[in-house]
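pasting for ref. prot 1 ->
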Amino acid sequence: KVAIKGIERELICPACKELFTHPLILPCQHNVCHKCVKEILFAFEDSFADGGSESSNQSSPRIRISASSMDRIDRINRSGRKRNSLTPRSTLFPCPGCQRDIDLGERGINGLFRNFTLETIVERYRQAARAAIAIMCDFCKPPPQESTKSCMDCSASYCNECFKVHHPWGTVKAQHEYVGPTTNFRPKILMCPEHEMERVNMYCEICRRPVCHLCKLGGGHANHRVTTMSTAYKTLKEKLSKDIEYLISKESQVKAHITQLDLLLKETECNSERAKQEASQSFEKLYHVLEEKKSAALRAIETSKNIRLEKLQTQVEEYQGLLENNGLVGYAQEVLKETDPSCFVQTAKQLHVRIQKATESLKSFRPAAETTFEDFVVDTAKQEDILGDLSFHSNGLEIPEINEEQSRMYNKALISWECPGKTDSADIYVLEYHKLNREEESVIWQKTEVCGKSKVLSDLDDDSSYAFRVRGYKGSICSPWSREVVLHTPPAPVFSFLFDDKCGYNSEHLQLNPRRTSVESRAGFPLLLGSERLQVGCYTTLDYIIGDTGIAKGKHFWAFRVEAYSYLVKVGVVPSNKIQKLFHNTHDVTSPRYEQDSGHDSGSEDAFFDSSQPCTLVTLGMKKFFIPATPAAPKDPASRILPLPSSLGICLDCDRGRVGFYDAGRMKCLYECEVDCSGIMYPAFALMGGAAVHLEEAVTAKYSEYHDDI
């Protein structure tokens, strides 16, 4: 017989770390307190509503949510539904036992079974732990008496007198089942949580849970393999009994493993102490080297100081000698008193030379030594960086690599990385970045810690280049730094707008998505019917669409993607005073010179055609970017054709009157020209044939998680 006190570990809830209270069985077969399940789901919903802030991670002091579970907040409540005051609405639950997201189904918590067997065992454990604590009667007037029995039908405890009063002979209540005093009341019949009026009488072998006959007939278990409850009871009990007998028969082997684990515990303690000593010795060596360098530097400074003081003191004495009746001047004054010419000449010659030198030094005064010690400044910037990176390096952690294709620089910077082995062996990552500046001699890296494999940064300057690197940490062990990647920010603040579905929008030829971020031209029957009337030439019109927001001043940037299959797309800007002309300009694709009966190829029509355009546009299509034919452009047409970038950007500078077209992936300017910004400027797009344009989505805090789910 197993001692009840020896199984306490199996009776602890993995969420609250206390004895189970009304445990629920999750689909993953782990047990969690009913209250803990609600608190965890409420905590996730609150964290999602607060944007996943760290302050809301521990909304309940009773539960302890792991960091890995907190990283999945956004995925749990992606729909953004609000919870009511009683029951959480989330259908995904982060199991604290297996650390996986478990789907609770449409009914959520209401679809989970209560583990009455585990509840009974917990109650027996509680009674064994508090044998001296009595259970009081629920119906006595104060003070209550000690209960003598509990009614399983009434779910209450009674003393002898109260039991007789509430269960009189000759009534239905007299037939109630009663047991000894207990606080664990379980129903006689286990009812189906899906169909509350039906008792469970079958066992689903696929879902591994009891079900009723309605679940099998038309519920979620209609096509599942089920068996009778008696058969499942007999089969599972036989398996469990055999497994228990096997474990008991291997008791000696288990004890041997326990002995081995005890030795490993002691060995771990010894090895950790040895590692501490080795680490201390390594740091002591560094301290010793630093102390030697410090002493040598201080000695050098002291020696230089003494030499300089000696030189300056000598210079002070020399200048003091130039004072009247003092030093050299006093001596010269005494020599002048000599009346014997021969004696005077003998002494005055050398004295005159000294007086001349003193006079020259007085005219060009210069200290004998420098007072500054700039040559003795110790530059420790590199050493500080090295010491800052000082940690336990391990070959077991893979070096992360920054994914330049998934990383984006737009209104914010999204930096993504991955491990070559596709395994997340690190607990946390450290992302460092700095702005590339030729004027700065020393590099100052900015650091941020990240739990996942992407980070959104919002404090970067426009029109700048930044270097990024990342490393992984697992405890105190870290991987080497990844290869540095340089990315460029947009040349101006990002301008947000949507496609305008009212001003000039041709719904017969163009199709907008519901969010108005994508437009597609439909080259269908209207285009064929329009071209049927044409016998020669081609006067098919472009279908224009503009942005719903204009720009009056300043410098702005926006980006978009053109589908590779697009035949013809024009992009640029249009002033507000020329929008009407834009949508009524019918002959804007080809000039008459290309008609079969035009009769000439002078090119004069092109000059008129270019000057008559109401807006500034460049042409894209067939995976190419066409630089407009201007006097400054190359004369060779082939040199004006560039590969179409995956993402294009437009930078409008209203103050300077210029517009630039960029490769938005590399933030490289492909073409720039002057533009008349006298009115309000609108983004303009034109499509013909099969074509599609998608506006770039702004980078938000949840952008990376959203695309990971996709």
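and prot 2 ->
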Amino acid sequence: MQVSSLHEVKIYSLSAGRSLPEWLSDRKKRALQKKDVDIRRRIELIQDFEMPTVSTKIKVSRDGQYIMAVGTYKPRVRCFDTYQLSQKFERCLDSEVVTFEILSDDYSKIVFLQCGRFVEFHSQHGHYYKTRIPKFGRDFSYHYPSCDLYFVGASSEVYRLNLEQGRFLNSLQTEASESNVCDINPVHFLFAMGTAEGKVECWDPRTRNRVGLLDCALSSVTADTEIEGLPSISALKFDGALNMAVGTSTGQVLLYDLRSSNPLIVKDHHYGLPIKSIQFQHQLDLIISADSRIIKMWNKDTGKIFTSMEPEHDINDVCLYPNSGMLMTANEAPKMNIYYIPVLGPAPKWCSFLDNLTEELEENPESTVYDDYKFVTRKDLENLGLAHLIGSSLLRAYMHGYFMDIRLYHKAKMMANPFAYEEYRREKIRQKIEETRAQRVQLKKLPKVNKELALKLIEEEGEEQQFGKKRKQKNLPSLLKDDRFKVMFENPDFQVDEQSEEFRLLNPLVSKISEKRKRKLKMLEELEAQGEEEEEEPEGKASDAGSSESSDDEKGWVEEVRKQRKLLRQEEKLKRQERLKEDQQTLLKPQFFEIKEGEEFRSFKDSAKKQKLMKKTLEDRLKLEEKLGTLNVSDTTVGSKQATFKLKKSEQQRKQQEAEKRHRQERKTLRRSASHLKSRRGRGRLFH
């Protein structure tokens, strides 16, 4: 029995474990149960609770004694007796079953809707009658007061078959092109059908008139949902007299109050798969909705998720055992799953021992260990070359990675790295050799970067170890062993530049500190050699000597710093002199510049002006053009701006214009002089 927990809700999978093949004899099955511990420890709640290949629908009779399931291949129906915990009977059919309905309290009256347009009736002894409907059916419902069967399918009509009279009645004409599902309210017997256009039509069977229409496709689209096409209705279920749940083909579940056209709540499965089944759990006010991948349980008032289950195989149908915490699924696998959730309710009467079993398991909790599965991350899958399996049934998504079969993991690892064992063997040999080497005399290895600093630290550490026990000082971590300073001895960027100005100015201080430390160590050796009685006087003398030595050290340090500063100044002077000599020796070569076509060279100042002008903004350039008179901006009558530019002229054009201007002025002066002479001559003739 497999136990899982989600949102602190324990889910017990009663069908987990290995199943034995049908063709094995009873003797071999018993022998396997003795040998294999997993087979012996499994819980087989109902014997042979499975189908040959696939199970499509599963239902429980109203008295709770019989569980009926249909599947393939070959098409068949199996009835299981819960009181005997075994199979009651099995019947093979001519074609696959789309859906079926148990009309009586037990298995004595069953109706099957088959994929070949056939409607088959079974009684307690077996096959009773078969008929056909005009179009392919997809779902049907039974109206108890009138004994009518309502069939919906690939047609706009709803076919009615009266079981009391044994004939078809007038069909209901709808506005839909096709219908997928239907249901009848158990309180007031309102008939509802879900269409391919995403609408729900409600009909009154007494008057055979439509009394309501809901546009669920429009209501299912919210701000968070991404829908590629028009959602159609894939599931429909009534709850009491006023509530109705609708499932769409795009993975949304809408809860309606029949008095309103707007949904009370919209729940999205976020898988984009059609909703297969909807069930109501009244004790905790939960809705159990399922698509082919996941079963979700959520509160119908708030929409908050209660728990969820993700079986190994695709789900075809879900059945909740009445007034209990047992859940059964029909899926794309031979074995039909049985889940027990104690929070939903007690175990059924026929398996009341489950309550005691789960209580014992809760009293002795064990850590969940997945022996047959390996947890891998996305990076591990890429290294193994199995990234293409993401989204398939071979990988189960969990937290930040995936669970995969341990056998598949070992095979992939062997193919990706066939020499893994050899590498492991070499690593073990290397570790053994290192252990033996640790017993030998070890040489001090200096790092590649900052060797001088490392040597200094090693010497200081050695000196401190010699006198550390007697001085009773605190053990401080070494810089060489500290991970925070490891990069300083590995990265070449942290190499100490001894020729830099900062190092040369600080070097006298560092050297003096090291000398002072050595003197202190020698002084401590002398103090320890003397007796306890003579310790006080030397200590007083040592303090006086230390004070005098500290003053001498400070003076010496100041002198050395001054020397270093003088040396640095001299070096800078020499560098300046060398630069001057190099500048004097270098010969200045003429530089040639290319002038664009149509331009004349005046001076280097013009080019500098042009560069400055190009760096300015458009606004500054326009203002400059207005000052020079080459730009004229004026307002028009419409309210817009009009800008007039004057092109700059070249030097040749300017000279030509000046020559023409002089020529015109000369001609004007000549004309004036000629007219003046003519007037003087006329006056002379008059005087004569």
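The first helix runs from residue 26 to 35.
The two ends are 154 Å apart (CA to CA).
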